[in-house]
Amino acid sequence: MNSDEVFQNVREALGDVLGMDEDEITANATIVGELEATSLDIVDLLFQLKKRFGIELTLAQVQRELTRDGQGDDGDEAGGFKDALFENVTVRDVTDWVNSRLPA
Amino acid sequence: MTGGLPEMPGIVGLGIDVVHVTRFSAFLRRHRDSLGEVFTTSEISAADEHGSRELYLATRWACKEALLKALGTGWGRGVQWTDVEGVGSLLAPRLRLSGAAARVARKLGAAEPIASVAWAGSNVMALAALVASAVSCDQGVDREILPR
Q1: What is the pTM for the complete model shown?
Q2: Is B77–A76 a contact, with Cβ atoms under 8 angstroms apart?
């Protein structure tokens, strides 16, 4: 599967989860900010990606690898909710992450 | 006085969440095999024994979300949904913390969390509060804030 196909699959999964038309889902859209996904939507999406692409993932792993500050700080910093790590993740970020998990 | 938000002395964290049960039920149906990532074994067992599995898990999910907001981390900084386990009553559950959630709560100086749930139609709402565990003084009167 090439990168465009991965992107299309991610868009389809997001459209399914969020009840949106795929045309409204652009590569640079932030999943939480612009697409207004809730935490439940994010988990739903990740589980769907797991099935669609046959990739093994745990939520803890995704949190570490995909989010901006996910360096396994084990909650040492009780940051404000505005610092929630998934807020700035874009559709492109998710696509790139899926690509990195697929066999070469 | 130790800890607490400026407007609510003694409250070190507060969170709220609303879950649409129908939406949540669709999630449960799609991902039956992955529920162990967000619910503990005990929660899943208790849900299987409850009259309405969907309502039970939707309620527990709302509590987890509310607590993660009260911690100030959301799903982030190592905190996972399974770090928060709802036990007992659906409407006034105890929330047991473990892992990163417990560490964050300790750093905030919080005692055991307090949670309250309400159902309205097809929506479930949960409120979670973290109360300071330290002894506080108020106008010269020593007042110990007791955990639940």
Answers
A1: 0.83
A2: yes
- Please count the other Cβ atoms lying within 10 Å of the Cβ belonging to residue B108: 17
Distances (CA, A) of B60 to B53, B67, B104: 11, 11, 20
Q: Where are the beta strands (DSSP E) in A10-101?
A: none
CA distance A97 to chain B (A): 17
Residue entry with tokens 């009780």? A78
Considering CB atoms only, which of B34, B38, B72 is closest to A80? B72
The ipTM estimated for the assembled molecules is: 0.80
> CB contact, 8 Å: B38 with chain A?
yes
Neighbours of A33 (CB within 10 A): 13
- For residue range A18-62, list pLDDT tens digits in order: 999 999 999 999 998 899 998 899 999 999 999 999 988 888 888
Contact yes or no for B76 and A48 at CB 8 A: no
